[in-house]
Each structure stands twice: as structure tokens, then as C-alpha cells.
């Protein structure tokens, strides 16, 4: 018994459709994992900076030491803000998760310690604050 070519074409089309579906699912998972990794790297950097800042004694004689750590902190936040503002990081759950951290760093640390060079961070803060 011979199978008509129409059946073979339908079977091949179904196989291609299934393969395309799994390719799309795999791509979406990979994209999400990349976003999680990027945010994780920034969070790790911020935790490290926070630990180092906690070791620096209070007092104006240590302002220079604190300044370099604040610069490192705000550079990391600026990079994270850029990735979110430019839609490189788009996962809504991840962004929702870090909103309180963005607000806290901006209001508790940035306003007291930073210069005005961090435009992406300011832009993200304003967007996050407007949504809260």
C-alpha cells in the first residue's frame, strides 16, 4: 500500500510546525534566563558594594573612600537602568521584583550621595515611581 504524497506533505508540515513551536519556546526561555542572569549579576555587584560600604567608618575623613564605592554602585544601577529603559530586560515579573530596590537606592542613597551623571537611573526611577 502506497501513501499518497498529500499525506506525506501534511505530516511534514505538522513536524515543521511542532519544531517551530519548540524553537520559539526555547528562544523565549533562553531570553528570560539571559535577563535573570543580567539582573543577578547587577544584584551581586550591589550586594558586594553594600558590604564594602558598611565596612567604611562614618566620618567626613572617609568620604573619598565612600565616594569610589558609591560610584561603583551607581554605575551598576545605571547599567541596569539602561537595560530596562532600552527594553533589553523586558520581563515584567523581574522588573516588578526590583522596583522597591530601585526606589530605595534612589531615595536613600542616590539623592544623598550622587552627582547628576546618572540619567538612565533617574529616568527609571521616575518611571517606576509613576507606576507605584
Write the layout of secondary structure elements.
Elements: H1 5-55, H2 63-85, H3 92-113, H4 119-131
Helix pairs in contact: 1-2, 2-3, 2-4, 3-4
Keywords:
132 residues; 4 helices; mainly alpha; elongated
Describe the 3D structure.
The chain has helices at residues 5-55, 63-85, 92-113, 119-131. With 132 residues, it is mainly α. The chain has one domain. The chain starts with a helix and ends with a helix.
End-to-end Cα distance, whole Å, is: 68 Å
Oligomer: single chain
Largest sheet: none
The gyration radius over C-alpha positions equals: 23 Å
Count of distinct strands: 0
List the total number of helices: 4
Shape: elongated
Q: Provide mean pLDDT, rounded.
A: 91
* Helix fraction by DSSP (H/I, runs of at least 4): over 70%
Tell me the β content: under 5%
Residue runs with pLDDT of under 50 for 5 or more positions: none
Provide the number of structural domains: 1
| Run of helices and strands | HHHH
Assign the structural class, choosing from mainly alpha, mainly beta, alpha/beta, alpha+beta, or little secondary structure: mainly alpha
Quick overview of this protein structure:
The chain is an all-alpha fold and 132 residues long. Helix content is 83%, strand content 0%. The mean pLDDT is 91.
Amino acid at each position: 500500500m502506497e501513501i499518497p504524497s498529500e499525506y506525506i506533505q501534511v505530516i511534514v508540515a505538522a513536524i515543521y510546525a511542532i519544531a517551530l513551536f519548540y524553537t520559539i519556546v526555547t528562544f523565549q526561555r533562553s531570553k528570560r534566563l539571559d535577563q535573570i542572569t543580567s539582573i543577578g549579576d547587577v544584584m551581586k555587584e550591589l550586594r558586594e558594594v553594600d558590604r564594602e560600604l558598611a565596612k567604611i567608618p562614618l566620618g567626613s575623613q572617609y568620604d573619598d573612600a565612600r565616594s569610589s564605592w558609591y560610584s561603583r554602585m551607581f554605575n551598576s544601577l545605571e547599567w541596569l537602568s539602561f537595560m530596562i529603559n532600552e527594553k533589553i530586560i523586558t520581563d515584567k515579573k523581574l522588573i516588578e521584583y526590583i522596583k522597591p530596590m530601585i526606589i530605595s537606592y534612589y531615595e536613600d542613597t542616590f539623592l544623598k550621595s550622587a552627582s547628576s551623571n546618572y540619567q538612565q537611573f533617574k529616568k527609571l526611577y521616575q518611571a517606576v515611581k509613576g507606576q507605584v
